[in-house]
């Protein structure tokens, strides 16, 4: 079974645009979880099934490189686990922060149903041009597109290469969406990639409301790991819809490493080579972390059924 055939043949495999429409209407968010290791995809999907929650499974271009994974290998394991576990909840396979059209094309060919073009560090005009190119390419193939405007800081340099932060301007966001035709927009309003050690998150809700009032697309917050639940949940219920997608990656890896008694991250090959009992312990830790996020953080637990009514 090819991954493309798997996506086409399963009614619960959605595009990002399809999934976020339901989340926005329900005033909750869908967690976009990065397992970072192919061996942990099973745990993320199992958590969604047990929590009766829609979910997004994602990986970024930089994670593909750092952990030694190809889009094809990631997608193949995703679709294999869908079949093996008989996953029935709504799922999206998403390519996160990516700067190269070649990687986006490779992911779409492999069966990803959503991709993110990230040219946020470039001047506005260049960001528009590259984002529109990605949107035109993906839409022609039935795939959703997320882009980013403003610069989201980082504490771990996995998803991004700079800790610079530049808040998204609402008027620019409206123009950006109009010119590019993207389906979702990641905005910068106080969260950061990684774990907060010194600087603490502070979500600018007024900015979010202003962006939402001027843009028709779904809004995304990156840097969900380490943000207090109440602070994040307030962003879901803002006037006009608020945030519908929250990215969570670092918390998953930290739970995996803690279960293994490790501090240093592995390559994907090293993770796959773990003893069966270690893999089982790691998967259980990741599964529990994802379920906790669904129930107490993004509030998506129990929401799967509304997609099929």
Automatic annotation (TrEMBL):
CDD domains: TBP_aldolase_IIB. SUPFAM superfamilies: Aldolase. Gene3D superfamilies: Aldolase class I. It comes from the Bacteria. Its cofactor is Zn(2+). InterPro entries: Aldolase_TIM, Class_II_FBP_aldolase, FBA_II. This is Fructose-bisphosphate aldolase. It comes from Paenibacillus cineris.
